[in-house]
Amino acid sequence: MAKSLDVYLEDKFVGNLIQDNHGQMLFSYAEIWLENPNAIPLSQSLPLRKDRFSPKECRGFFAGILPEQSMRKTVATILGISSENDFSMLERIGGECAGAVVFIPSGEKLQTSFNYQEINEQELAKILRELPHRPLMAGEQDIRLSLAGVQDKVAVRILNDKISIPHGIAPSTHILKPAIERFEGTVFNEALCMGLADAIGLSTAKIEIGRAEDIDYLIVERYDRMMLRINPELIQLIRLHQEDFCQALGIVPEKKYQSEEGPSLKQCFEILRKVSSAPVIDLQRLLDAVIFNFLVGNHDAHGKNFSLLYNLTTSNTRLAPLYDILSTDYYPTLSKKMAMKIGDEYLSEKIQPKHFEELAEEAGLSKPFVKRRVPDLAQMILSKLPEVVMDHPVSTAVAKLIQNRCERRIREFK
């Protein structure tokens, strides 16, 4: 039997996601949205049009909202649905997602008042401990959280230093990420790398480290949420729309790596040049992000780790702040192959100045400038490392690794 979900951007009805009688997922924009002079597409891969989008056309965006791999399978098992059924997953957990998109059963009225469940430290610790077995709190009553990726995480509202779990379609303000069990000190690794990126002037999501009982976790402030104070007693949370580069290019999440038909850096620079409202600034920001990931040894910087941020009011499109940066090079069991190659090389250890010249040509940037930018950023990183490193063995070890990588590249790029 065919089923349908109403799709909203913030509080505006934009279209219907449909599962037809054959189980295929389709999408069509609502006529009222197409007639709106301020309408924007849900995705660069879903331009405004009257014709319905086929499963192949729309799956890149909609599947890209959902958790991936083993996390997705665990969520599906808990909910009693197929892990391959994107529609059913969005029906069950598509209340609070990345960006401004919200899914509700067709015909239901969109909530205008929101419910939150305030939790204490002990309750938070229990939730964090259970995440490997209950990702995104799936199956808990009235919890409809969906976040892309494979790492354990949960979306919360933090207001006046109190943490609450959003119910239904209530918006969150932060994402909490406990350590990955298999890899030592990921919280401190990511905190160092994100703090370092911020220290040298890159636009990043704001982070800090929290602790609940014996569990360290990273607190990431959502850049796709805005808090408006209506009056001294009332605060309104606004969703800002965003999509990652895989979604914008219509690439399904299981193909997020370039070697598996995922985005290349050339494609990333091309789409940013095409859609950014400030392309000169954003192309520079993307270049700096690529170089920074290379210098700190973040080999997992794939197409879902870069995003576009949309302003529905001004119709501006910008490169979103950076997120999910950590030195994967610190962990010997993780691949040394970069998610996207620089020039024609995947292995960061083999990267030479000529590969950045090739990148410059692909990205339409000045070769001398791109080559100079590598040692320039390396020097900036070295100058800020002592200020950012924390009193933790993993932070200290990762800082030393980054120092060695930067010193080597300064010598090689002279």
UniProtKB/TrEMBL annotation:
| Keywords attached to this entry | Kinase, Transferase
Q: Which GO terms describe its molecular function?
A: protein serine/threonine kinase activity
Domain named HipA N-terminal subdomain is located at: 5-103
A GO-annotated cellular component: cytosol
Its domain of life reads Bacteria
Q: Where is the HipA-like C-terminal domain?
A: 145-381
The UniProt entry, under Pfam families, shows: Couple_hipA, HipA_C
Q: Which InterPro entries match?
A: HipA-like_C (IPR012893), HipA_N1 (IPR017508), HipA_Ser/Thr_kinase (IPR052028)
> Keyword Repressor on this protein?
no
Q: Which family does it belong to?
A: Belongs to the HipA Ser/Thr kinase family.
Q: What is this protein called?
A: Kinase
Q: What species is given as this protein's source?
A: Candidatus Nucleicultrix amoebiphila FS5
